[in-house]
Amino acid sequence: MNDYIESYGERCAFDPESDKEEHAAAVRSRERNGFPLASFAHADIRPGAPDMVEGVIFDLDGTLLDSMPWWENLGENYLISRGKTPAHDIRHHFKRLTLEGSARYMKEEYDLEESIAEISAGILDGIEHAYRSFIPLKPGVVEMLEAFAREGVRMCVATATEYHCAQAALERCDIVHYFSALFTCSEVGANKTEPLIFDISLAHLETPRETTFVMEDSLHAIETAQNAGFPTIAVYEAASASDEAEIRRIADAYLDSFELKA
Q: Which one-letter DSSP state was computed for residue 208?
C-alpha cells in the first residue's frame, strides 16, 4: 500500500518547470513555521486545534470553487432526459459518490439501459464546459492561497471531480501554481468515505499529519479525515446547510469566509 501511495503521488505531481514564480517563492520559503490558524477573520476554532498550518489538502467543489449550483441538478436532469423521475434525496447520494459511483447508482436504481461509461459521459457533457469556462472561485480564495504560500504552506488538491475538469478550472482561475499536485478519487480508486486520497496527499506533501489540514465542505469527507487523524478546516457551503451543525461540532475550525485579519 505504501508503495502504491508513493508511486501514485509521483504520477499526479505537477511539473515544477511549469509553475509560476509565486510557487517557486513558496517552495523557497518552506523553512518558515507555517500559517497561524487564528489569522482567519471569521473562524470558529475548536479548543485544542493545532495553532499552525504546515500543509493543506484542499477539496475543490464547494471549497475552492463555487461549483455546487452547477452540480445540484446535473444528475436529476440526466435522469429526466432518460424519462425517469428522480427520488427526492438523490442529491444526498451524489454528494458522497465519485462520477463513476453516481453513474453506477443511477444505472442500478433507475434501471438505465446505458452502460456506466455512457452514463458518466452523459453527465460530464453537462458539466465539463462549465469547468472550462464559467465556474468561479469562492470569494477570498486567491488571497488565502497567497497568504499560505508566503508562509511556506505546502498545498495540493484532492477532489472527487474528474482530473481534466479539475485541472481546467484551476488553470482558468489562475491558481494551479499554488498546488504541487492534483489527486482525484477516480484515479485513486476510492471515494472520500475512505481516507486513501488523504493519505496519498499527505505522502506527497511530506508534512506532519498533525499540522496538515484537510479543508472541506462536506460532512462525510470531514468525518473521514478526522477519523484518519487529520485536523480539518470546514468551509461554509450553502449546499451543505443541512449538515452545518454537525460539521461545526466536529471540525477543528469552521470558516464562514476566507477573509483574513488585517
A: -
Q: Residue type at 79?
A: L
Task: Report whether pLDDT(15) > 50.
Answer: yes
Query: 102-143 pLDDT, tens per residue?
Result: 899 999 999 999 999 999 888 878 788 889 999 999 999 999
Q: Judge contact between 157 and 166, C-beta under 8 A.
A: yes
Cα–Cα distance, 260 to 43 (Å, whole number): 10
Residues in the chain: 262
What digits encode the pLDDT tens for the residues 202-250? Answer: 999 999 999 999 999 999 999 999 999 999 999 999 989 999 999 999 9
11 burial level (CB within 10 Å; 0-12, 13-18, 19+):
exposed
Distance in angstroms (rounded) separating the CA atoms of residues 183 and 158: 5
Quick one: pLDDT band at residue 147, thresholds 50, 70, 90?
Answer: very high
Give the C-alpha separation, 226 to 228, whole Å.
Answer: 5
Map grid coordinates 495553532 to a residue: 51
> How far is it, in rounded angstroms, from Cα 8 to Cα 183?
9
Quote the CA–CA distance of 79 and 87 in Å, as a whole number.
Answer: 10
Give the pLDDT of residue 2.
62
Helices within the chain (DSSP H only): 2-11, 21-28, 68-71, 74-81, 90-96, 99-110, 116-125, 128-133, 141-150, 163-172, 185-188, 196-205, 219-227, 244-250
Asked if residues 193 and 140 have their Cβ atoms less than 8 Å apart, the reply is no
